[in-house]
Amino acid sequence: MVCAPAIQTRMFIKPGAACDIPENRSMFPTATRAPARQEVAIIVKILYNFSNLGLKVQRFMEKPGKTKQLFFLTIFIGLILVFFAAVEIVLRAVGYGYSTEPFVKPRNMPEVYIENTQFANKYFSRKVDFSVFNNRSIFDVKKPKNFLRGFMIGESSAQGYPFESNHSFGKIAEVILDNLGKYEHVEIMNLGFSGLSSYYLKDTAKKLLKYEPDFILIYAGHNEYYGEIGEAAGGTPLTKNVYLALKEWKVFQLIFDVVYKLTYKKDDSKTLMAAKYNKIKLPQNSALDKRVALQFIENLDSILKEYSVRKIPVVVIEPVYNLYDMPPFAGGKDTENLAFIQKYKSVFQSGDRAQMKALFKERLSHKEYDSNANIVYLDALYQQNLSGVSALSNLIAAKDMDVIPFRTRSGLIQELRDYYQEKTNTYKNLYYIPLFSVLTNRYGEKVLGNQIFIDHLHFNMKGQLAVGKIVTEKVEEIFNFNPEQKQKAEKLFQGESSLLTGMGYLPVYEMIAYGSIKDILNDAPYKSMLIPYVFDNFPLLKNEILNNEELMKLIVKDAKQKGGSAFRLVRIVENYYFKREDLKKYYQHLIAGAMLYPGSFLPYYSLALFFSASSKNENLAKDFFTKAYLLSDKKKDIYKDFEFYFKSDAQKIK
């Protein structure tokens, strides 16, 4: 019979041992959003013109008599406040809207926090079902002694996209640190979300203080132009902060829902990236780029002020991007320069060095080409091929000239570095990881290519491991891990295959990740690039599913008949192993589900049913049934199954 989990703490599965996956990975809105500025303006207009009484007061105010003006103004404002307070009370009573807290206590398990899967709605322009994350975190309300607790906040790269959040570099650091013996337990909860800007960071970081963090990790900077509440959304820092403050209230959640429906524009884009881009181009502009960079720094500084008072370490990780293998999405005056770009690209691809030298010499005589991102990117390739010298400066210049800046521009990076140098003595709790220099010094300049990236800025699994190691080293430094513990960490990283398997990183999840990237590469702005991105990433694992013809036929058949999904793919693989009585692999997938979604009842329910089949594992079955039942808010079906297998014990949890 299959053995119990190799590593299990308190109530829940933790990485180190190896179910259900959310149905829909495309959980983000793909419609064009109403800018925060427009939404706030509509709210102000509603307040100003509230009821006929407002118009009457407005006319009365034009008449002489300051006492009367003040009296009626007070009554008018009071009536507005009473009205909105009454609506707020009613909406809360009927359960409208969503909680804006990152974590909530399950009704039947008040001793733990699980992720509030709807909390990110505060930062999006319409209510979205974020249950795709399916509770990726769970932790004790009262932090036990000798526990080290951290939180990761940031955008899609911090989230781990396209991989599961609990396969990200933050989780890799957690698993290593947890096995070094300094603390009874190390936990790093991932609160990264795709498409969010630094306004989300500032707002969320302050909310995290109530959960007793020992440190937080911040990896962000790429979404300041196109992210929610970013530059392309419009508005000023004031209107954006007002927007977020208003969304704490149910009544304004309702108003914003109505505003969104009135301003909704259908968008056929398949991905969040395409929806955020929405054909908006933002050419390099010193004033614009400076403003964006300073807003990012102001939001970061707001976090440091709060955490400095409490002496909680804040680790800021410098954002990096794919330079060597990622051409610009678009350049300025691409249409005017199209003929030369195509010729320049074609000659390079031919590999004819004589033609390359002649054309490169011709190109250098045309200064008008110096401001086109695509041409400057090709300059770097020519320079590297013909002379063998570093092309890094031209690659960075081409990235900065990209008029679709999904990769953060150098101005923000420099402001971030300057901020650290300036504030390092002011904020003793500020720690900085200069990721660009650490990676290039450790692995060489060309590491900033497909070697560690799976697209323009998201890490492949090699990249997740590399950054996870760097983050681990920084946490070891901050919390004074001893040399023996650091040496143990080095050995654990050397066994990367065992590490990943122990985290539940299985072939099926790798397939899901690569499928997500395929969707991005087939949509805007990738599909309109003049110099196409060459995707040459390959799975890290020897993917046994891809090499199994029988299993692949089942997967392809399901995709044709039912459209396929991440949830269905995992189910097909699990059922395949179960029907063939390969219980070891079947169990491995069930455990992986519990590690990926430890706050969901579903994986525990599957494990309960699995162990119920064996009289030798009754205690484990009862334990998993109990967890599933309580986390599910006492679903009747789970109780009935529990009663069927263990009738004498069922009343204890009812």
Uncertain runs: 1-11, 18-35
Going across the major beta sheet, what is the strand order?
7-6-8-9-10
Task: Give the termini separation.
Answer: 30 Å
Let me know the largest β-sheet. 5 strands, parallel
**DSSP summary: helix tally:** 27
CA-based shape: globular
Work out the radius of gyration.
27 Å
Q: What is the residue-mean pLDDT, rounded to a whole number?
A: 87
What structural class is derived from the secondary structure elements? alpha/beta
Task: Tell me what portion of residues adopts beta-strand conformation.
Answer: 5-15%
**Beta strands, count:** 10
| Helical percentage | 40-55%
What does this protein look like?
With 654 residues, this protein is an alpha/beta fold. Helices cover 52% and strands 6% of the residues. The chain contains 27 helices and ten strands. The strands form three sheets. It has a five-stranded parallel beta sheet with strand order 7-6-8-9-10, sandwiched between helices. Helix 1 crosses helix 7, helix 6 runs parallel beside helix 10 and helix 17 packs antiparallel against helix 18. The N terminus is likely disordered.
